[in-house]
Amino acid sequence: MAVERKFVSEGVRKARVEKYLTKELKRAGYGGMDIARTPLGTQVTIFAEKPGIVIGKGGKLVHQLTQDLAQKYAVESPQIEVQQVANPSFNAQIMAERLANALERGWYFRKAGSSILRRVMDSGALGCEVIIAGKLTGARARTQKFTEGYIKHCGEPSNTIVEKGYAVAIKKLGVIGVQVKIVPAGAKMPDHFEVIEQEKKKPEPKLTVINVGEEVDSEPALPDDIGPVEDL
Fold it and tell me: 149: which of 31, 38, 92, 232 is 20 to 30 A away, CA to CA?
């Protein structure tokens, strides 16, 4: 069971690091991370809307993050790389954080959810789903969904194609959970197909038709400047 315990421990460590970075980099527009083992150590790639805040003044914040990952979370020789998110509207984690902030500022949940859904779809996404759960209007908790476009809920495409983000909004009535799912533009679904038109055949060359009664020269005419054939 050593191998199984290793996988479980790595999954728990990744979840703890994800929770830590989400809390520390909330102001920077945290958009997720990627951990990969390298011969020199562990490469941690952080995706953020504002990379300058992640790095900090003189690299102070990124140095503190490196120390915390090595000491508190037992990440072997962490090397942090910060990348800017090209299109925040296609990043589900950033959209979930924005929706949670809007709810905390007092936005009505229907207006906030519809606004996030419209922004994602206007950016060219193939599909989007927004789920808001908690004490939305009264003492009893309920769930509200906003869906538009094409969304996969099961199978391999839901794990590899659909981008997922989760955030929490803390209000006086209680905690509201926010989940955003996005199918970005250009994603190839397994059930997608295209019809290829058949190539048109090239026209056949035209043949010259000669009537039987016409006379045809058996030998081609020679130019005037060439002498008799016997001299050649």
Answer: 31
Indicate the domain borders of the chain: 2-84, 88-183
Count H helices, E strands: the chain? 6, 7
Q: Which residue has the tokens 């050593």?
A: 2
Helix, coil or strand: residue 179: strand
Three-state SS at 14: helix
> If you classify domain 2-84 with CATH, what class do you get?
alpha beta
Q: Which amino acid is at 118?
A: R
In the chain, how long is the greatest CA-to-CA distance? 118
Please provide the CATH number assigned to the domain covering 88-183.
3.30.1140.32
Residues 84/94, Cβ–Cβ less than 8 Å? no
Per-residue model confidence as pLDDT tens digits over 103-156:
999 899 999 999 999 999 998 899 999 999 998 888 888 999 999 988 888 888
